[in-house]
Amino acid sequence: MERHLFLELFGYGASALIAVSLMMSSLKRLRIINLIGASCFACYGLLIQAYPVAVLNSMIVCVNIYHLRRMLRAKQFYNLLEVKPDSDFLAHFLEFYGAEIRRIIPDFAFRPGAGQVAIFILRDCTPVGVFLAEHKTPEQLEVLLDFVIPRYRNLHIGRFLFIEQADIFRRHGIKEIIIHPRTREFGAYLWEVGFEPINARLGTFRIWVAK
User: Fold this and answer.
1) Are 168 and 81 within 8 A, CB to CB?
2) CA torsion, points 84, 158, 23, 103, in degrees to nearest 10?
3) What is the DSSP letter of 82?
4) Distance between CA 126 and CA 78 in Å, rounded?
5) What is the DSSP string of 141-179?
């Protein structure tokens, strides 16, 4: 491959990384991808002897490193808040994020009723997600909605809810939680959290919360 063509493709690749970074809903992911893209652009600038391009993108790399270090050092406090299924705030939260919820679960419609469990996931006392489920048996919950707003979606929240804070379910006498993931990606997420597939045809996963 000619050097000129290689440099041109390398520059396009760096541009693509910068563009992709700006599409990330997660600020941390945006910083990481932007850091990689800016690093590539800095190298590209050096290779074609466009030193202003190299200097500018080196500065962007430093800015991204600075903010990533702050993110990694910052302490994030998560906790749970159980509410009644007919809570006005719960209804407002579901309405506010209704479009995003329907994008994931098009036929979702929450109808508060007896035998349901509603839990907010809080980060630094700010609601970032909600868990809704109903009793199928006294010891089994079926998940209606496990939703986290886009910028906070990560594996840690799932493990926090289902593993670290499983006592919140045990207090209800729950031993098993079942869920029907709508996408392959969500199924992979459940596997990482600790769920196990129990019905391949129906796409059902479960996790045991009983000690």
Assistant:
1) no
2) -50
3) E
4) 9
5) EEEEEEEE-GGG-SHHHHHIIIIITTHHHHTTT--EEEE
pLDDT tens digits along 135-146: 999 999 999 999
Sign of CA dihedral 22, 25, 27, 29: negative
Determine the 3-state secondary structure of 122 from DSSP: strand
DSSP states of 184-205 = HHHHHHHHHHT-EEEETTTTEE
- The domain defined by 78-208 carries CATH number 3.40.630.30: yes
Q: How many CA atoms lie within 13 A of 87 on its CB side?
A: 17
Q: What is the largest CA-CA distance in the chain?
A: 70
Locate the domains of the chain by residue range: 3-73, 78-208
Across the range 32-49, mean pLDDT stands at 91
What's the rounded Cα separation, in Å, for the pair 193 and 177?
13
- What is the C-alpha separation between 47 and 38, in angstroms, rounded? 14
195 C-beta neighbours (distance < 10 Å), count:
21
pTM, 2 dp: 0.67
The b-or-e profile of 128-147 (16+ CB within 10 A means b, else e) is bbbbbbbbeeeebbbbbbbb
φ, ψ for residue 147 (rounded to 5)? -120, 130
Separation CA 115–CA 30 (nearest Å): 41
CA atoms within 13 A on the CB side of 9: 6
| Residue 35: other Cβ atoms inside 10 A | 20
